[in-house]
Design goal:
237 residues, alpha/beta, Rossmann fold, DNA polymerase, domain 1, 2 domains, 11% strand, binds xylulose-1,5-bisphosphate, binds magnesium ion
């Protein structure tokens, strides 16, 4: 039955899905640690584990609690300061053009728009980070492309909690059956599925080994011609 309801809205995750941002985030965290002379360094294997926690501040808190030795533990004020610094370093690397949209995304957004689909974003990161990257990669204001942008600063609980997706449904007055989510990670997939939204997964650099058993569609690229036929039919694109 739900398969007969038209998909009206495509909801995109941001980090890892619209763009491969996580290396830029990781380097910005390390620069922020350096900037306050904190002897922490997140290499790629550690960062992969830390990505199970959505949100930059929550990630620092988690590391502080679970990985850092007692002599290196930091205060809540330090966490706030480090995250502010990290955001500044991340913004600088986006402004320099270090982060690009994933291949196929630009065209997918254009085709979806042309076919009168609504577009939305559901992300644990902030509105400012989304706006900066879209401006730099698409040369467009986010609100000219996306009808609603659900960001980590608008909810109490980030992914894998479903609140970011539920907010899109509520704000756009849509039923889950009218939407399709695009995600790159397990926590993102779980978040969308807990909101009852069918989900297409395309893993990113850090999530290739995640478990995607509950995904409705598995993508190896964002090129529409490489989507599974069943998904193209469902989207009518
Ligand atoms: C991924 C994230 C983000 C960034 C850090 O979000 O967890 O939190 O790594 O961003 P999603 P901030 O995949 O949901 O887009 O430092 O801005 O919180
Ligand atoms: Mg993601």
């Amino acid at each position: 039955m739900s398969d007969r309801i038209e998909i009206q809205c495509l909801i995109f995750d941001f980090d890892g899905t619209l763009a491969e941002t996580e290396e830029a985030h990781r380097k910005a965290f390390n620069k922020a640690f350096n900037s306050i002379k904190l002897n922490w360094h997140w290499d790629q294997p550690i960062y992969k584990k830390l990505l199970q926690i959505a949100g930059g501040k929550e990630r620092i808190e988690f590391y502080n609690k679970s990985f850092s030795s007692n002599s290196k533990k930091i205060s809540s004020k330090d966490i706030e300061d480090i995250h502010l610094q990290k955001t500044k370093f991340y913004s600088q690397s986006v402004a320099k053009g270090c982060v690009q949209l994933r291949p196929g995304i630009r065209k997918l957004l254009e085709i979806a728009k042309y076919n009168k689909k609504e577009l939305a974003i559901s992300t644990s990161t902030s509105r400012d980070n989304v706006a900066l990257l879209l401006k730099s990669c698409l040369n467009e204001n986010p609100e000219d492309v996306f009808s609603f942008i659900s960001t980590g600063d608008l909810v109490q609980k980030k992914k894998p909690n479903p609140d970011l997706y539920k907010l899109v449904l509520a704000e756009m007055n849509l039923m889950p059956e009218q939407c399709l989510a695009f995600e790159d990670s397990r926590i993102g997939l779980v978040s969308a599925k807990r909101a009852n939204i069918k989900t297409a997964v395309n893993p990113s650099q850090y999530s290739a080994e995640d478990n995607f058993d509950e995904a409705d569609y598995f993508l190896t690229s964002f090129l529409l011609e490489q989507f599974p036929k069943s998904l193209r039919r469902r989207l009518a694109l």
